[in-house]
Specification:
Layout (H helix, E strand, L loop, with lengths): L13 E2 L2 E2 L7 E4 L6 E4 L9 H14 L1 E4 L6 H8 L5 E2 L6 E2 L2 E9 L25 E10 L7 E5 H6 L3 H8 L2 E5 L3 H7 L20 E5 L1 E3 L6 E3 L6 E4 L4 H14 L6 E4 L6 E5 L3 E5 L8 E9 L5
Parallel strand pairs: 4-5
Antiparallel strand pairs: 1-2, 3-4, 5-17, 6-19, 7-8, 8-19, 9-17, 9-19, 10-16, 10-18, 11-12, 11-15, 13-14
Length: 306
């Protein structure tokens, strides 16, 4: 009688939908099984050696949002780290930080209501109306409330991968019209106390503010597919009526709300977050009042969605 050989092989740990990579130069602690990790052992004020940077990029690709604590950066150090991910770009609608055209801010003063920031109380991606929507956002906290004010994220890869084959086939052939042309006009019609804090002027042309993108996009290196349908700046699916488009959008938007796709990051002063704007949805959680929340960010330009 023959016996099967014994094996001590341990099955890989699955995090964010894939086997977790091995890291030797940085500490990596997953936040949830869906996405997100905290990285330790890195000082972003100093130039990063090639091996450490490669592991940071591996963590970014795998977890989609990476968190660094206690990073007291100058604006130029913030920008230098951001350039590790690509070229920094401006955004037409986001308010500038302290005169830096290539830095934006998300700010709510203690006396203000949640309406003064474009908080979008639903999961979304930033600026999908651009021809090349942002690849990622690098954000740092200057002031945070004692409790609340977290940022939540939802993994769009996992949302897509859990769809039925029939719905995947439908979405694979759909395209979405995204437009930011009317955000200032809509804002002006609101009562002053309900207006969003938007950038006053920009150099973008009107035709830059509307584009058509696939409803499902692929990672340019791995080919992994993710849902790219977000209610922010959404107009319609190409070839569909507005009512038909809204019905499907509402269903797809509801999927991202499921907690098993999500992680949530608590801000502390000098926390730095980098999140992948292409394959991850995010939203601010405005569950605080009477305190200041001030975040500053750079935006890295991405590829045209494929």
């Amino acid at each position: 009688m023959s016996l099967a050989p014994k094996t001590d092989a341990v099955p890989p740990v699955i995090v964010a939908g894939l086997p977790m990579p091995t890291f030797r130069r940085i500490g990596v602690e997953p936040i949830t099984g869906a996405c997100g990790c905290e990285i330790s052992g890195v000082d972003l004020k100093r130039p990063l050696d090639a091996e450490t940077l490669a592991e940071i990029m591996l963590a970014f690709e795998h977890f989609l949002v990476i968190v660094f604590r206690d990073q007291d950066l100058t604006p130029e150090q913030h920008k230098a780290f951001s350039r590790c991910f690509g070229e920094i770009t401006e955004l037409p609608q986001a308010p500038l930080y302290d005169g830096h055209r290539d830095m934006q801010e998300v700010r709510r003063e203690a006396h203000e209501t949640k309406n003064v920031v474009p908080s979008f109380e639903h999961f979304h991606t930033d600026s999908p109306f651009l021809e090349r929507p942002p690849l990622c956002v690098v954000m740092r906290a200057l002031a945070v409330p004692l409790a609340g004010g977290d940022t939540a994220f939802s993994n769009a890869y996992l949302v897509y991968e859990d769809l039925s084959e029939g719905l995947k086939k439908l979405l694979d052939g759909l395209k979405v019209v995204y437009s930011g042309k009317d955000i200032w006009a809509k804002n002006e019609k609101l009562p002053e106390e309900k207006r969003l804090r938007l950038r006053e002027g920009h150099s973008f042309r009107e035709e830059d503010m509307e584009n058509i993108h696939p409803a499902v996009r692929r990672h340019p290196r791995t080919g992994r597919k993710a849902l790219f349908v977000t209610s922010a700046y959404f107009k319609r699916f190409v070839g569909w009526s507005e009512a038909e488009s809204r019905a499907l959008l509402d269903y797809l938007q509801s999927l991202a709300q499921q907690m098993h796709y999500q992680c949530r990051v608590k801000w502390k002063r000098d926390t730095v977050l980098v999140w992948d704007n292409r394959f991850l949805l995010h939203r601010g959680v405005h569950d605080f009042s009477g305190e200041r929340r001030h975040l500053i960010r750079t935006t890295v330009i991405g590829e045209r969605p494929i």
